[in-house]
Amino acid sequence: MLTSKQIELVENSWDYVLLHSQEPGAAFYKKLFEIDPGLRLLFKGEIHGQSQKFVAMITFVVHKLKKTDKIIADVKALGIHHHQYSVKPEHYASMAVALLWTIENTLGKQWSNEIKEAWLAVYTALAKTMIGVQNNSVL
Predict the structure, then answer these.
(1) Phi, psi of 74 (to 5 degrees)
(2) Domains, the chain, with CATH or none
(3) What does each of the 139 residues of the chain score in pLDDT, given as a tens digit?
(4) Cβ atoms of residues 50 and 103 within 8 Å
(5) Do the beta carbons of residue 85 and residue 40 sit within 8 Å?
(6) Which of 7, 35, 106, 134 has the least CB density, counted as fewest CB within 10 Å?
(7) How many Å apart are CA 91 and CA 32, to the nearest integer?
(8) Who's near 68: CB < 8 A, 6+ residues apart?
């Protein structure tokens, strides 16, 4: 369960990223493919459109953290979608590193352990939900 302070930290830091980074999605995918080059094979064509979808999805989730019951079906659907595109449970760790790097890189001196822990709490909850759906689905 997320605390109200963690939700506030995540919301504020993501809003800062959106205001101070021209292409957070592009930065995320660049870092992701540096961490795990094999993941690039899961994406067909150029990554710009996927970058925009990524930013929209993170923004949607971040601003629904106070009402997670409203997004759980969307998170589960995303987990199934990832599974259909051959995303494996171990890939979520690389995604976490790339996401945290993207936020830290944008926040600069504003980055803190408290913000990192808040993002880890959010990401872990989302990833567990998506992986759980993958593990329980018959596709």
Answers:
(1) -65, -40
(2) 4-134 (1.10.490.10)
(3) 789 999 999 999 999 999 999 899 999 999 999 999 999 988 887 899 989 999 999 999 999 999 988 888 888 888 888 877 878 889 899 999 999 999 999 999 999 999 999 999 999 999 998 988 877 754 4
(4) no
(5) no
(6) 35
(7) 10
(8) 2, 125
The residue among 103, 80, 132 whose CA lies nearest residue 12 is 103
Tell me which H or E stretch contains 100.
helix 91-107
Which long-range contacts link 55-58 to residues 24+ away (Cβ below 8 Å)? Answer: 55/18, 55/24, 55/25, 58/14, 58/99
Residue 16, burial from CB neighbour count under 10 angstroms (0-12, 13-18, 19+):
middle
Concatenating the DSSP letter of every residue in 34-55 gives: HH-GGGGGGS-S-SHHHHHHHH
N-term to C-term CA, the chain? 30
Q: What is the three-class DSSP state of 5?
A: helix
